[in-house]
Amino acid sequence: MTKTATCSTWTNAMTKLLPIMMVMGLMGGCGKEVKVWEEEYSKDEVKEEYQYYHHPKTNRRIKDGWYRSYHKNGEHKKIGTYKDNERDGKWSFFTDYGTETKGIYKEGKKWSGEFVLYYESGKVRYEENYVNGRRKGKSVFYDESGKVRYEENYVDGKREGKEVLYYESGTVKQELNYVSGKKRAKRLPITRVGTWIVK
User: What is the pTM of this model?
Assistant: First the structure.
């Protein structure tokens, strides 16, 4: 009896077997031969592994399918999927300490979710939010002590309201104002105590 399956069904069925394979053809009957690439920190310490195929003209490796990378301690660093060498679908990012950030990509671009970057210490370095491929709400940079050093606000993918840069002490260094993505007023300090002039 002959069984048939779509490429996506075949991929899902084989995913459980892929981690033990390094370079082995899996989907020759689906139009492109998908293989598995594995890179190691050292023997028995996997750095990253992912599905790929060779570009028919350039022979370059094109990531396509599941992707996983690891910290040196063996814990996950990134988990997600690629489509024709671009992030596509759900992704998870982990710090050395196991803190997870989730987001959705579409055609290689941040699409939906709160994206957070961390310092090696585990403290938040930067955070931003995306809805339907556009930034929404406040984006904030922090220093390693946790103080806000820079913040800006977005509405429907455009800067809106104040964009503020801070000194390490927490006082305002520079402030700009935006309306529908356009700069409206530029403020520059004219003394060290923070007096401002609008130009």
Answer: 0.71
